[in-house]
Amino acid sequence: MEQITIKEIARICGVGVSTVSRAINDHPDINPETKKKIMDTIAKYRYIPNNSARNLKRSESNTIAVLAKGISNPLFGKMIQLLEKDILGKQYLFVLQQVDEEENEVETAIRLEKEKRLKGIIFLGGTSHPREDLLRQLTVPFVICTVNAQLSEETDGFGVVAIDDEAESFRMVDYLCSMGHKKIAILTALERDSGIGRLRLTGYREALEKHGIPYDESLVVSMQPGQGTYTMENGYEQTRVLLEKGVQFTALYAIADTIAIGACKAIFDAGLRVPDDVSVAGFDGLDLADYYHPSLTTVEQPLEEMATEASRVLFELINKKQGREYQIFRANLREGQSVRRIQE
């Protein structure tokens, strides 16, 4: 397919070539609606500007992009605010790109780098085993934040800022076992998930093994596609199905606070009580977990510290042009009122 030209983009949008150039160059003197129309058209026709087409000598960009994987995940809200404040404070431009759960975040980053002439990228969320052949197509430093991705020695110019999801999940289930629970259901991610859901499920299995509790497939519930993995709706629906099957459990562990709150609602609607009939535990430490009733026992991620560190690592990489840095934070097991001890 022949590459579309800047003149054709201008004709489709009903504007002049100079207006398209200003949109591409992120000039402030352009109507936001016009700019959006132009950029949407560029994306639709996969137009990649080049020097001859622009006929402009462009200065180096000072733009940092933050890609958030999973638009329904409230975990990223506070982190995005902190990152934006820090990036703008360093006199850089800030671009937020939301990535759907079904999209490949690295492919999106490659496209965005070409369009925006980025200086650096921060990934929020994504897979713990990203395709390194794609990552190596990025020509700017990047930081993977909230996912403990392990990359080979062949990849350079990156940082990882996260918690150890497997170890922290183990700690939560170990805690539930220490409270006397032996029948612990888990609401985990999609079956094909290769990100934090898989790591947290592994931690669950390891904690059961430590306590000599057999792994029971009937207590493992995967979120369903099409509803957003980390949503209250998905947590509610899958818990409702689990309860209707008559599966017996005394505790339910959800890999996200939003899923756990949806689960609580399903438990209440079934005529049961939390924690009297079923103890519930979550993961992430969102503010809403503290204000929910009963307050949710959860694994609290140090989101502010992680956002600050992700920004620091990225700018250090930008200055050095190369390097590898891993920063793994310890989470906090925050006891709420949603888990009770079972008497032997």
Shape: elongated
User: Which fold name is given in CATH as the topology of the largest domain?
Assistant: Rossmann fold
Which CATH-level-2 architecture of the largest domain?
3-Layer(aba) Sandwich
Strand content: 15-25%
Q: What's the alpha carbon Rg, rounded to whole Å?
A: 23 Å
Helix content: 40-55%
Total of domains: 3
- CATH structural class of the largest domain: Alpha Beta
Description:
By secondary structure, this protein is an alpha/beta fold. It has 3 domains: 6-54, lambda repressor-like DNA-binding domains (434 Repressor (Amino-terminal Domain), Orthogonal Bundle), CATH 1.10.260.40; 63-163 and 302-331, 3-Layer(aba) Sandwich (Rossmann fold), CATH 3.40.50; 166-301, Response regulator (Rossmann fold). The chain is built from 13 helices and 12 strands. It has helices at residues 6-13, 17-24, 32-44, 51-54, 76-89, 105-116, 132-135, 165-178, 196-210, 232-244, 257-269, 287-291, 303-320, and strands at residues 63-69, 93-99, 120-124, 142-145, 158-163, 184-188, 220-222, 251-254, 279-281, 298-300, 324-329, 332-334. Strands 2-1-3-4-5-11 form a 6-stranded parallel beta sheet, sandwiched between helices. A 4-stranded parallel beta sheet has the order 7-6-8-9, sandwiched between helices. Strand 8, helix 11 (257-269) and strand 9 (279-281) form a beta-alpha-beta unit. Helix 2 crosses helix 3 (32-44).
